[in-house]
Amino acid sequence: MNSGVLTALFDACVLYPAPLRDFLMWLGKSGCIRARWTRRINEEWIQSAVRKRPELERARLLRTAEFMERAIMDALVEDYEDLIPGLHLPDVDDRHVLAAAIRGGAEVIVTFNEQDFPAEYLAKFGVKTQHPDDFALCLFKRHPVSVLDAAGRQRRQLKNPPIEVDRYLEIMSRQGLTQTSKALMEYRAIL
User: Fold this and answer.
1) β-strand 33-36 against 6-10: which pairing, if any?
2) 146 and 121: one domain?
3) Which range of residues forms the domain containing residue 176?
C-alpha cells in the first residue's frame, strides 16, 4: 500500500448501477485510492443487476467484473473467509464485506448501507463506512486534480451517445453523488 493513499473496499451496492461503478473504477485507476473488492462482492452486484433488470445478460456482467479486475490489478481481496465466523454484524450476510475490508487493509467501506455496519464495532478493526457521496467529496477535497481527472475521463469515454457535462453531472447526482456533483459543477469547463 502506498503511503498516504486511502484503501477503500467497495460494497456490492455501490458497484451497480454502472455509472457509479465506473466512476469508482476511474478513481481507483487515478491513484488517489487503493480500490478493493472480492469476487463474492462482484457476484452480489451481478445478481442484483440481473434481478432488477432481467434483460441484462449475466455473461456480459461477468465480463465487466473481469475487466474491473484487469483495470485495477491488485483490487481483488482473497483469503478473507477465515475471518467471517468471528465477526458480529446485525446482518450475518454482511460479515464477508467486513472480513474483506480487514484482510484487504481497507480503512473505509464505501456503501449505501452504513446502518448495517455499526461504527463502534468497525472501529475495533480500524475500519469505518462512508456513503459514496461523502467518500467522493472527501477525496475531491484531498485530491481535486485526481477526482476531476477521473470524472473527466469517465465522461469522455461515454461516446454512444456522447454525454455533455451537465447531463453527466445530473446522472452522477441521480446515482447518489449529489454533493460531489455540485462540487464538480464549478469545474465543468474542464470536465
Assistant:
1) parallel
2) no
3) 137-190
